[in-house]
Amino acid sequence: MTDFGDNEIICQNFLIELYKRTKGNTSLKMSMFDIGDDLGLEKSYTSRVAETLIGNGLIDIRTLSGGIGLTSEGLNFINEKTGMSNDTQSCIKLCDEPVLIEVQIQAVKKVIDDLNQQAGSLGLNYSSLIELTADIKTADSQLTSSKPKTDIIRACLISIQNILKEHNKTNNFETIKLLIGK
User: Fold this and answer.
1) What sign does the CA torsion over 25, 29, 32, 37 have?
2) Phi and psi of 59, rounded to 5°?
3) Strand runs labelled E in the chain
């Protein structure tokens, strides 16, 4: 349970602004004072908000001059507050960047995990099941990379989407469509 005291709305807005600026990438850092300025906060109040978020484990301090970053707990908190916790992929689209960011990785992982669990019960013919399994394994393997390549993941998802469409399977079809933007 997070405890923001009387600053709940401001803390949440601050966290959301950090999330937007880092695009959900937990390895990036931003100046807490720049975020505070954009939210119209005084420096001393910005420091108190940041301390509250650090105390709740949602951000961490990265530099002595006020550089902060989103923690994985902070990312999870944002996902829950924005309604993405159970259906992250519906809010996330793969971008044109060469490497996926954290929220995209999590969205793709959920789709791949769901498909992996459902593959045997989809009633696909042998050839389609082998192709689906290969695409799932390729995507899963790429997600273990420290820099998962967007183009490889997108190609896997398009292939999976085509298999599902060919066999009139709606499982994860809309989710994949939203992720790849097609």
Assistant:
1) negative
2) -135, 165
3) 30-31, 59-61, 67-70
Instruction: Give the chain's residues under pLDDT 70.
Output: 1-2, 6, 81-92, 171, 182
Is 95:150 a contact under the CB 8 Å cutoff? yes
Token pair 């992250």 is found at: 88
Sign of CA dihedral 38, 39, 44, 46: negative
In whole angstroms, what is the distance from residue 108 CA to residue 135 CA? Answer: 12
Count of positions (residues) in the chain: 182
User: What distances in angstroms separate CA 8 from CA 2, 22, 60, 165, one per listed residue?
Assistant: 9, 21, 18, 45
Q: What helix, strand, coil percent values describe the chain, rounded to 5?
A: 65, 5, 30
For residue 99, give both structure tokens: 């490497």
Dump pLDDT digits (tens) for 35-51.
999 888 899 999 999 99
How far apart, in whole angstroms, are the C-alpha atoms of residue 91 and residue 58? 21
Among 10, 15, 9, 20, residue whose Cα is nearest residue 32? 15
b/e code 123-142 from CB counts within 10 Å (16+ = b): ebeeebbebbeebbebbbeb
pTM: 0.54
